Amino acid sequence: MTVTSDILITGAGGFTGQHACRYFASQGYRVTALTHKQHLKDPTDDQVKEVKGDLLEWKQVRDLVKTVRPENILHLAGQNHVEESWSHPLKTMNMNFLATLYLLEAVRNEKLPAKILLIGSALQNDQPHMMPSKHPYELSKTFQTMLAKNWSAFYQMNIVIARPTNLIGPGPSRGVCSMIAEKIASMEKKMESDPITIDDPSVQRDFLDVRDAVAAYERLFQKGIPGEEYDVGSGKSRSLAEVVEAFQSLTSVSLPQYSIQEKNTFSVNIENIRQLGWKPVRSFPESLKDVLSYYRIHAEKEEA
C-alpha cells in the first residue's frame, strides 16, 4: 500500500539506514534522512531529503525536531559494535543512551504526537531478569530500552521498541557475514592470501536480511503497541560454522571446515511481530548471495 506520511530516519548513512531510506521512500513516505559523519550513498530519490546533524548536540536535536515535525521517527543512530564498546565505553553510552534521551525530550518538548520506533538489540538484557551485562554495548542498549519504555509510560509517548538480530544484506557492514564475503571476494581476485579464521565456530546467531527488517519496522509503525518490545529476526539460529559452509557453496576458493561437538544455543521469539502480519521473505542463502555479489563488485572496482 502506498502512503503519504513524513518520517525522520536517524543514522540514515549507516548500513540499515541506507536500506530504510530506500524502502520508506518506495512506500510513499517523505523521508528526512539525518546523517552525521556518513552520507547517503544514493541520494537520487526526490522523496528523500538529507540533513546533517549531531544527536549529541541538544540544540541541533531540538531545532531538527522543531523544523521537521515528523509523524514517524525511526531511530537507528548509535554505536552498534561490541568490540568498539570495550575500547570506547563513554562514546557508546553517549551515542546509545544520551542521544536517545535528547531525541525523546525534543519530541516531548514540541508536544509532537509522533510515533517513535527505537531500534534496540537482541543482545540487550531482559529487564525483569537483569544479570550483569556481557559488554558495554549490551549495557548501553539495555539502558536505551529502559529509557524508551519509561518515557512512554511517564509521558504517554508513542514509543515502540524493535530488537533486531544480526542483519545481513548488500551494502557496507561490519557484520560477520560481510567480513567473510569481503574476504572471499578478495581471495577470488588474488588480492588476499590470509585464510578466514573463526575464533569460535560453534557460536549461534540469528541472521535476518536487512530488507526484511525495514519491512518489519514499517509494520511496527502501523501496528506496534506503545511501550512494547518486539524481537525482529528469522526465528532460526545458525552456527558460524554453518555460515562458512553456506558461503563455500557460493565460491570456488577453499574455506576452512569446522567440526562442532557442542552448540552454543541462541534464539529469539518473533511470535509478537508475526501476530502483526509480518514474516521474513528472503532466504538465508539468497541473502548471502547478495552480500557476496556486493563485495565482488567492489573487488572488481578495486582491481580496476
UniProtKB/TrEMBL annotation:
Coiled-coil residues: none
Pfam families membership: Epimerase
Superkingdom of origin: Bacteria
InterPro entries: Epimerase_deHydtase, NAD(P)-bd_dom_sf, Rhodanese-like_dom
Gene3D superfamilies on file: NAD(P)-binding Rossmann-like Domain (3.40.50.720), UDP-galactose 4-epimerase, domain 1 (3.90.25.10)
Residue span, Rhodanese domain: 7-67
Stated name of the protein: GDP-4-dehydro-6-deoxy-D-mannose reductase
Higher taxonomy: Bacteria, Bacillati, Bacillota, Bacilli, Bacillales
